[in-house]
Amino acid sequence: MDANSIAILILLGSFFVMVFLRFPIAYAVGLSSIFCMLFQGSNLNDISRLMVKGISSFSLMAVPFFITMGVLMGSGGISQKLIALANACVGWMRGGLAQVNIVASYFFGGISGSAAADTASLGSILIPMMVDEGYDADFSTAVTVTSSCEGLLVPPSHNMVIYATTAGGISVGSLFLAGYLPAALLAITLMIGSYIFSVKRGYPKGEKFSFKNFIIQLAKSIWALAAVVIVVVGVVAGVFTATESAAIAVIYSLIVSVFVYKGLNWKGVWKVLDDCVGTLAIVLILIATSSVFGYCLTTLHVPALAAEAITNFTSNRIIIILLLNVILLVLGAIMDMAPIILIATPILLPIATGVAGLDPIQFGIMVVLNCGIGLLTPPVGAVLFIGSAVGKVPMEKVVKATLPFYVCMMIALLFVSFIPEISLILPKVFGGYIPTNM
Amino acid sequence: MPKFFATMDKIKLAYDWTDKVVMIICKVLLIVDILITSYAVAGRMLNEYIPFLKDPAWTEEVVLTCMAYMAVLSAALAIRRGTHIRMKAFDKYLPKRTLKILDILSDVAVFSLGVVMIYVGWRYATTIGSRGFYVSLPWLSRFWMYFPVPLAGLAMIIFEFEALYNHVKSFYVKEEENA
């Protein structure tokens, strides 16, 4: 075994050992990088430079701003309004409340960008409503947790910003546009799944569709939805950078939550910032330490070696794409979203864009969707735990009820993986993006 | 021994205050970042109509420096609150004693990382780092750009010290007594 291989073994081996020993992932990343650098005899001074460099990216500033915007909107009483809007759109269907749950997640995702926030916020309102209407509690929880993944794809999503920065040189605006159709596809597959269940189990329909009611609810929600318009249109049209649009959106969300919806007062805003700092505490330090880890991966040529290993195994593009999905799903089952994006992207992106022939934006959507499914997969499955707590349904029952919806999600994932147009048509038409594989 | 811990526990108050102060600093840094970025956007877009609104050159560097400080300070808070992402999937299958040992091991490792960060970070900030100046603020040493790394190490050590103290205490003081 040569020195390079031993260094890779130290880097990745010590990282996974520490992860399984329950070390905080952000620090496990830092420590394994230090072990590797010590073995290589590198100057540890680089740690300082790399950590500061990792976090000193103006694009990354969008991450704290989007998180703040989501928390402000989520606490500002927006959930009920979005549920009412979703009800006006699809409540008339068989299993109306399940469909409402799925569509509301699409709207809410644009504002929060977090599957956990979606489950906690919409679930706490919709699950009791669904149970009162005669839906099974485990089914209601399963619909809530699976539909929450839409929020990760609907822009603005801070995870997409992390991916764009880690991948390097990817337009955040194009990535934002790329998320809409895959999220809609995911919503449609989940709606079909829910519809089949609703017919089988005789779940009720809601009130008849009324255009007038739809307009009324749209008018009530328009202030919240406008935040998404500010960000997406602003970035795509080149008026703002992603970071600038996020900062403006925070100010806008503050005004809407405090003065328009009146869901928050100034004391509430100050308190809500605790949640923002709490989330940022986890994400930002991880970005800093991952920068050192990424440097080690690059100097050891790990991405090239991984690509070589995969092409030695197979040169079949379809199998490679499936393999990439399997790797991401397995990682998603044991790790959280941000670490996967930060650690796996530098290794897998060259394979995806090289031998698999994927566009970096399409691959970004695949990464986010895989990680989203991972959030619902035991043993980690953070969103499953939240859903189980919110729905007051034992974890085992939630997992069992979620099984058919995994099929829906897998169908959406396969479509996204093998039909690049789903991710790339909007960036191409509206963002002027030139895809590499279309 | 419990008497010793009762005396030592008075330090918890200092930790609670530190926690509060650090949280306030993080919130203020976040607000400053939002305000400066919004001001820069407003300056760029409205300068034509409102001449005193400008997009000063220093905004980006100041915002990034604030973010670096917020990142390291909030990360230290997360140590105290135990909110850092870690793999807890197998917790319910492991005996309590094993979990305790793993917690101690992890805290010792993070403590050690803190020591490395102080040493390496301070050396870099005071040597190579301090040789340059901010591009937009030529009077400000780049020491302040790299200072967050040793500061992170220091904050980690401070909060890990409390975590390790609590582990040691738990061996001598039973939970009922603690309550």
List the main descriptive attributes of the protein structure presented here.
heterodimer, A: 438 residues, mainly alpha, 80% helix, globular, B: 179 residues, 0% strand
Provide an overview of this structure.
The complex is a heterodimer of chains A (438) and B (179). Chain A has 438 residues and is mainly α. Chain A is 80% helix and 0% strand. The model of chain A has no long low-confidence stretch (mean pLDDT 88). Chain B has 179 residues and is mainly alpha-helical. In chain B, 73% of the residues lie in helices and 0% in strands. Chain B is built from seven helices and no strands. Chain B has helices at residues 2-8, 11-46, 59-81, 96-126, 143-146, 148-172, 175-178. The longest helix of chain B has 36 residues, at 11-46. Chain B is elongated and about 70 Å long. Chain B starts with a helix and ends with a helix. The model of chain B has no long low-confidence stretch (mean pLDDT 87). The chains are: A mainly alpha (438), B mainly alpha (179). Chains A and B meet through helix 1, helix 2, helix 3, helix 4 and helix 13 of A and helix 2, helix 3, helix 4 and helix 6 of B.
